[in-house]
Design goal:
By secondary structure, the chain is mainly beta. It contains two helices and 18 strands.
Length: 451
Amino acid sequence: MKLVKMSLLAATLIASTAYATEDTNSTYGGPSNFEVSGDAKLFYSTDDAGDGTTLGSGSQSGTETSGKLFDKNYAIGQAAAKLGATADLTENVSAGVSIIALSTLGLENQLVSGVWETTNGTDDSFWFDQVWLAGTVGKTTGKVGRMELDTPLVFSEKWSIATNTFEAALVVNQDLPDTTLYGAYVGGSNSGNILKRSVISAMDAQGSVNGSGDVTVGSATNFHQFYKGAYAIGGENNSWKPLKAQAWYYDATSVASAYWLEADLTLDMGLTLGAQFTGMSIKNGAMDSTLTSSSNTAFAAKVGYVMKDKFSISGAFSQTGNDKDNNFGAGMNLAAYGQSKLYTEAWWNYGYITRNDTMSYNVTATTSQKLTWAQLGIYFTQSASKDAFTGAQGVEDLKMTEVTAEAAKSFGPLDVGLYYIMTKADDLNQQKAVKKGDAYNTVQAYLTYNF
C-alpha cells in the first residue's frame, strides 16, 4: 500500500528493544534475540499525461503529444529487496541494520522508461538505509545511528519503493503518567532539504510528482547534511483516554524554526474529531541572501466516523496563511518530497495543500477487507492557492483536484494494491504553452511480499 500509517518515535524505540521473542543464537555464542526480516517489492505506474513535445511534420505538425497508458514511454517501474536484522546485544541494549537493493530487472526500454528511486537513471543500486544502536535505562530509551523517523514535520515518507532515512540521535522518556517526551538531533539524511529546494525553485515544484519522469528521494545512496543540523523536542499526552494531544518544536540551525500542535478525539460511538495547527519561521538570509525573515501558519480540522472492521469515512479542511514576503507555505515535511501530515494531504500529488495562501478539502472513505473482498477506498482532495500560478492571463489561482480509487488486499504475507488516479492541476499536463493543465489518468500497481 502506498501510505503506511506509522506510530510515533516511542513505538519505533519499543520495537527496537523488544523486536524478537526467541533466543535463537545465544547457544552459538552470538547475540540473543536475533531476528531477520524484510520485504520484496515490485512497483509499476503509468499515466497519459503529455510530455510537451510536438509532432515534427505532416497533417498534425505542431500538435503536442499526449501520453498513452501502458506505453513504455509513459511508465515507470522497479523492484526492490530489503533485508534487515535486529539483536539484543546485552540486557537493555539492542542494534539493528538493514540494506536495500534496487533493480529494474531489465524492464527499462521494454515495459518502462523510468524508475521510482535511484541515483543516476536505471542502474542497480544498494545502500544501508538503517544502522542503529539503542539502549534503555528505566523508562528512558536512546537511539543513535541511521534510522527512520516519524514526527509531524520531519519524517520518513512511505509512498515510494524506498524510504528516506536519517542520521540522528533521539531520546524517549515515559516517566510521566500517560505522557511520552521526545528529543532528537538530525545531522544527515538521504533526502532533499525542502526549504533549500524551495528557495532555489521559488516553490514551483515543491516535490509534486509530474508525469512519469524519474521520481527520486534526493540521492538515495548519498547521505548529506540535513540543513546545518536540526533539533526537535516533542510530547504526547492521553491522560483522558479518548483524547491524544501532541506538541512539537523544531529548530533547523541558522535556517528556520517550526512548531506543530495536534489534538485527536476518538469517541466510543465511532466519531472522530481532530485539529492541527502548525507554523514555520524562516530566518533572515537562510540559505539565500535574498531571503528575508518571515513566517507562515497552517490550520486543519477533521471529522470522521469509524465502524470497526467495516468502514470509515472522514472529511477535512485546511488553510495556510499568506506569507507576502517569501511566498512560503507551511506544514510540509522538511525532508524528502514535502508530503504533509495535514488531514487534507492528497493521496499522490504532494506539495499543493501546503503552498502559500491555500484552501484545501479532503474526503476519504474506505471499507475493511473483512467487509468486502478487498479494502476499497476513495480519496478526494482539492486545493486552491491564490496568486500562485502564472497562466495565459497572468497571475492566477493554482487549482489542483485529485481523485484516487483503491483496491488493496493481503494474501498472507503478500500485499497487493491497485490504484486509479485522476489528476487535474493547472501546472501539470500543460499541452499548449501557457494553457492550464488538462486532466490526466494514472494507473498504479504495488506488490509487496513481507518476510
